[in-house]
Write a structure and sequence with these properties.
This protein has 130 residues and is mainly alpha-helical. The protein has five helices and two strands, in the order ββααααα. Strands 1-2 form a two-stranded antiparallel ribbon. Helix 4 packs antiparallel against helix 5.
């Protein structure tokens, strides 16, 4: 089964459970860029099947968002600002950790609110071919 990926302009082959989840999210009226963010699509294409954010748990969304944002933002800030300003490594790591945690909390709350608003089931309840 193939899921029409509107953002990529073509069809992408995903496992049946993921296709079912994506179809359910599309039927709920959520925009494709919201239920299938670019990082998720990249990981899905690489073969790492993780749940779409609306169907993932609050904890998973928190950890996932906090990790990628904290590392990415921290590295960007280190190379563009902190290393030149002489910021100690532990202080830079602490700021990146805090930024990641705040971003992760915000994203987890956003997706949990969306899941409730659209009455979406958790990932564990999705069956292939639904």
């Amino acid at each position: 089964m193939r899921h029409a990926n509107v953002l990529a302009g073509g069809a992408v082959s995903y496992p049946p459970k993921l296709n079912s989840a994506l179809a359910k999210l599309a039927a709920a009226g959520i925009r494709p860029g919201n239920y299938a963010p670019p990082l998720h699509r990249l990981l899905w294409r690489a073969g790492l099947i993780l749940p779409p954010p609306h169907l993932a748990s609050f904890g998973f969304n928190f950890i996932f968002s906090a990790a990628w944002f904290g590392v990415g933002w921290g590295a960007l800030m280190w190379f563009m600002l902190w290393s030149r300003a002489g910021t100690p490594g532990f202080a830079a790591a602490g700021m990146a950790l805090l930024a990641g945690a705040l971003f992760g909390l915000g994203m987890a709350a956003y997706y949990r609110r969306g899941a409730r608003r659209f009455h979406l089931p958790p990932w564990s309840d999705i069956e292939p071919g639904q």
